[in-house]
Amino acid sequence: MFSITRLAIRNLAQHRAKTIIVGSIISLGVIVLIVGNSFMETARLGIERAFINNYTGHVMITGLSRGDISLFGVQSPGGVEETPVLPSVAAIREFSLSLDPVVQLTPQLTTFGQFGLDDVEGRTFGLLFGIDAETYFDMFQSARVVEGRLPEPGERAMLMSVQRAEALVEAIARRAERDGIEPERSDVRVGDRIAISSFGTGGFRIRLVPLVGIYEPTSGEAVGSEFINFVDAETIRSLTGLSTGTGSEIVIREEERTLLDAEDFDLLFADDGFDDFVFDDDAGEFSDDWDAIFDGDREADAEPGEPTEADLAALAEAAGSDSGPWNFLLLRLDRTAAVPAVVTRINAFLEDEGIAARAWDWEQAAGPFATTADIVRIVFNVAIIIVGVVAAIVIMNTLVISVMERTAEIGTMRALGAGKVFVWRLFFTESLVITGVFGLIGMGLGSLITGVLYLIGIPATTTFLEVLFAGPELRPVVSWVSLLGSVGIVATVAILAHIYPVMVALRVQPVRAMKVD
Amino acid sequence: MLIHRTTRRASIALGLLFLVSALGADTPDFDAMLREIDQLGQFGDRDFSGVYTIVSQVPGQDDSVTQARLFRRDRSDQFVLIILQPQIQRGQGYLQTGDTVYFYDPESRRFERTTLRDSIQGTDAQNRDLVRGNLSQDYRVTDWELGRLGSFDTYILDLEATGTGVDYDRIRLWVRTDRPVVLREENYSVSGRLLRTLLFPRYANVGGQAVPTQILIVDGINEGERTQITLRDPSVAAIPDGVFTRDYLERVSR
Q1: Complex confidence, ipTM
Q2: Which of A439, A450, A441, A457 has its CA nearest to residue A494?
Q3: Which residue of A82, A206, A234 to mutate against B (max B Cβ within 10 Å)?
């Protein structure tokens, strides 16, 4: 074995020019693969870290929905469907926490809302995360308060993102300009009363909540944070009607729903359909008491913006625990590798118990953000694969030509008594040596280039790149997997590239082979 | 031979001219028809009120029911819509005064600006479906054909928005040929996608105006989603001025 290695090295040294050409191509291939892989891997890990650490945790558990569900709501054809309420929260919570890898759990509500300063015209839109302040900010350290403080557990409060606060100021200015007046406010301050309006089971609703803080993302990784605002769960429940149920049964007349079952629309127009009679001016049940248009009395007045008694009753029921209505349970695990197993176990539990809910991994939880990043990453992967294939073809071609040129040498070796196996082993060893040496050089240069890019940092100049890079800039890091993987790929290519030409050369009779110049 | 050919050409030209003029004579004045449709649904100097029941059907869910009382005063572009049921939404209301539409939430006692294109309590019904339209000003007829819907001969009109301030860029209307009553309406997006279909099988003559008493709205995007709007207790009794105010919404919902 040693003699073959020595012979292989001597051969490589003898064909120095060819060795350097083939070796350089191998090095280049390794560099391309290492730098490309480092980009991909860093971006992938960045997105994963950003979402797991800042919003989604490792696992998300939700109620069932018709559309694609993520932490940001349900995407459905024609608009945003209401986010389903998670059933049997307490049982799911208890089971999840009993699983070894689960180290933290927090519940969450999500809705979209329009908000602004109370009694000041001008509104902006944003995502509203209804949270349990006691567990949420322990699990996610995504918010750094720049003004005010974090909401306290059980407190009715809002924590607004810096970007939404700025958007609100702009909206106030725009509204004032449209109305031809001076803007009533030029800033948003801690202590302001924020009027939030949203739509849910209880129809369109408005709630007032004090602004206790304004935050910015803790790290540059919090993609999409500019849209997210944190509000106490009770306020979100009250806004979306989760705390007050669906209301009493309404009795309707048969003719008030007959059209819904119509299959042939033409049949709806079978008769004249025009009730050609004239009402008296005084017709109708409603003419005198303009202030009594409801059948019964409303419940006692609550303070404006405060929850009603029905709200409070529902809240009292949920008090002392977080088993009230929630949209999501988010779990943090002790390791990312345990995600598939935990998701499978929770889903099996949900199925066994007949609970209409499902567990998802963080990528599903990240929703459109991860999907966008995934698509770009696939395109990026394809580009790298194309570059890799081109590099492999070039390496193969060069090696094929190099071996073919040595047909005479192979013939001579065979004539001198070298067996086919010996020739195979010699060329195999040559391939290993050349890929080993130049692969190492490629690894070194690839790591160096990646290191320089890490030091410089590649800025994300657009929001699109920010999503892809999971932050304002990408600092690629070389991983052992990409190092060894790249060398492995190139070595395989180099070794495979020898098989065909050596096979052809060995088929030629030694005498004829020796005649080849 | 030349004379014969010239005579034949002249005959054909005259025939075509006659045909064109004959067809032209049968083409209705669609601008006037749109104005008539608008006028038939407007109450002018009289007020209008009624109770609307909105039943919304979504596959896999229980039907949702909303009842609301509408007060309209078309002469000053005002309306008030107050939710009567379900209990959870009772007292919520919409108020239009001029170009501004407000939503009122009785629990927080706050008003928010909104628009006519907002859906009513999450159904496919929009505020604009319950108040007067302005087809003749907002749209122009780009094409038409004769058709039949059920027992009725209809003009099928393709309408295109004349400006940008409308909810739908394109509308297709089925209008009875014997009276300017819309039986069916299709709303399309800018890209030509069917967004919703409205059917008006029943009308009532309320104080001389035609008001749809049953409307079926079929969602064009979400299959199986339908909404029925039914009008009862229509009245043209005079409504006090104070009804069309924010104070009234606050007072009445207490």
Answers
A1: 0.78
A2: A439
A3: A206
